[in-house]
Every structure is written in structure tokens, then in C-alpha cells.
Amino acid sequence: MIEVEVKARAPEGMAERIASLGGELIAVENHQDLYFNSPLRDFKRSDEALRIRIKEEGPRLTYKGPKIDSSTKSRLELTVTIDDARQMEEILGRLGFVLSAIVRKRRSKYSYKGVTVALDEVEGLGCFLEVEAGAEEDIEEQRRKVLGVMGELGLHESITSSYLELLDEKKQHPAAGKSEPI
User: Fold this and answer.
1) Are 170 and 124 within 8 A, CB to CB?
2) Verdict on whether the full-model pTM lies above 0.85
3) Spatial separation of the C-alpha atoms in residues 99 and 161, rounded to whole Å
């Protein structure tokens, strides 16, 4: 399945804005995402990701392929349910995969106009909004849909970096995005 996704920084009051448009809160989840790098290629360079997501309903292993367009984060996403996150981490380690980062967030998920709207509070980064849809056939139609919902929410930014990439950027440029008194 291709995941079609757009992301923007979420201003104050976004939960109320989503509700006022008719978005229905469907879940509040806590995610701990363990990202791994491959012994065969550098996922940072190949624009891929392999993660174990640990959340209340159980852990999942997800592979994400390279982004397929420049204005969204659309990409192949393959996910399987796993029984034991620690055992999966051990298996990956024995195969040469290296834990490269941990991303923690609290996600409020809404359903709106056939897409998922996620309001994320990401540890170390702040609040973001993601609008996503799955596409098996007409990717362009889903792309228009997620961009349209983003516009309805008053957001016109499109961040194509993952949370992992944003955290990495912040480590490399700790003053970026901070306003210092003059």
C-alpha cells in the first residue's frame, strides 16, 4: 500500500479546529518508535525506514520505501503485527541492523472526509499535524484529498521530512528554529 501523507507544524487550537470541521476523534495513542539502520545500505541515504512501533494495541514492524514525490511524504509502507517488540529488536540486531533512534509521541487520531488526521505531540520537536490516506490505485486522487484537507485546516506548509529526520536536523543544528533575544 502507498501511504499518501502531508505534514505541517500545528498551531495552538488545532484540536478545536479539527472538531469544528466535523473531525471525529477515534483514538489517543502513545507511540515509541524504534528506528533501525541496515547493514547493507544507509537508510538515511536511500530514504527508507525500518521501525518497530510500540503502542497500546501492540507492536508493529514497518518498512517505508523512498518518497515518490517532492510535495508529500507519499511512499510504499508495509506493516506487520508482531508479538514481542524486544524479541524483534533482538532478531534485527542479530541480522546486523542497528538501533539508530527512538522517537516518542502522543497522537490524537481523527477521522475526517475519508482520511486520517493525526495531531502529534513529538518529544523534542513540538506539535505537528499529519493528514494521511492509503492508496492502492489512484495516488493522485488521494494526494489531492490530503492536500485539500490540509488547506481546510488552514495549513499550507508541507514538511516532507520524517520526525526522525527532523530530530536529526535538530541535533546537528540545535539553535535552528529557536528565537533568541537580541
Assistant:
1) yes
2) yes
3) 19
3-state helix, strand, coil in the chain (%, to 5): 25, 40, 35
Domains located in the chain, CATH noted: 2-172 (2.40.320.10)
pLDDT digits (tens, 9 = 90+) for 147-173: 999 999 999 988 999 999 999 899 888
Residues in the chain: 182
- Which residue(s) pair with 117 in the sheet? 110, 131
**Is 35 marked active-site?**
yes
Annotated active-site residue in 35, 110, 112, 163? 35
Place of cell 487520531: 109
User: What would the grid cell of residue 136 be?
Assistant: 492502492
